[in-house]
């Protein structure tokens, strides 16, 4: 399956027919329904248990790898198919691509109606660079990740604003969003999919789940991230743990072991980056930064993302979090439940004193990313924040960051 890459990069999304091969549709429907039944039984018993995968009433979602066995492993192995992983490699421009997330989106028990327009970019002390910086990085170096919606039954819930992944909201969009953030925008397009079709899109595109109703809905939602492109992707840590891999075929196991190798290689590079900062070694710092972000343009974005990661690592070292369930620890540090274990693995490479020193090194950058007053940008935040959501400070670059290390220390 081939895509028109230039059209995809221009529009920010592409609709593909028969992502699920027609002869496999019934088989996958049956397997996924078995997983839904298993997860529903868990929710019925443990819905409020902080150790259980969180139940989201308006859109129940399964981290389906957690409930598979050898008979339903075809659900996970579909994520390695040429129509999913293969197409994602085309879009990301490298074979070194990993599967970040795999969930099944389901219909709720009661109708909730339309959700908010949003971009899949959160901002704050522990997350992301300003949107314009992420977009400029992507335009210069190509996307670092892609998402998929693949319905097992006909679906037309998703709407997008074509090309919005390349720019900030327009004044008209903001006006319409402030008036009603759950209403159809004047320049949007409906994504109508037949069962087994798929839409692949860039995470920063402005999009809208138009109706969470009781109509049967089973959406295979996947996110792939690049480990071999020209930029360091935001939110690249895997949202799964490898205990399920034993249920897969030999080929499937090899695929996921390769993903783990890519993630381990990236963590080695991140450790080099942080240790160069701890040692106040500008040459080693620039070398490690080039490994993580080969493209010359946008490297400050990588630095910002790694400053957020260092903050989450530091928070995880707090002794009062040690005995909490995964969901509560993840929430406390700004991480997601299924990525907390690999964040812990990275954090174990550093002492508590080293993580504190790392955070001190990032203080001048963090200060530059904050504004004097709180502000709100429709589609980017649920509440006002002092952290810059759209624009980078224009008076702080890599040289300034390195020059401030001694002051931060």
Describe it for me?
This protein is an alpha+beta fold and 409 residues long. It is 40% helix and 13% strand. The chain has 15 helices and eleven strands. The protein has helices spanning 5-11, 25-46, 74-77, 82-92, 131-141, 171-179, 250-278, 282-292, 299-316, 326-333, 340-347, 352-361, 363-368, 398-403, 405-408, and strands spanning 13-16, 61-62, 97-106, 145-151, 158-160, 189-190, 198-201, 207-209, 218-226, 370-375, 385-387. It has a six-stranded antiparallel β-sheet. A three-stranded antiparallel β-sheet has the order 6-5-8, with no helix packed on it. The longest helix has 29 residues, at 250-278. It starts with a helix and ends with a helix. The mean pLDDT is 93.
Query: What would the average pLDDT be, to the nearest integer?
Result: 93
What is the helix/strand order?
Answer: HEHEHHEHEEHEEEEHHHHHHHEEHH
Give the distance, in angstroms, between the N- and C-terminal Cα atoms: 52 Å
Strand order of the largest sheet: 1-7-4-9-3-2
How much is the radius of gyration in Å? Answer: 21 Å
Percentage of β-strand residues? 5-15%
Largest sheet: 6 strands, antiparallel
CATH class of the largest domain: Mainly Beta
Classify the helix fraction into a percent range: 40-55%
CATH architecture of the largest domain: Sandwich
| SS-derived structural category | alpha+beta
The CATH homologous superfamily of the largest domain is named: q2cbj1_9rhob like domain
CATH topology of the largest domain, by name, is Jelly Rolls
Instruction: Report the principal-axis shape.
Output: globular
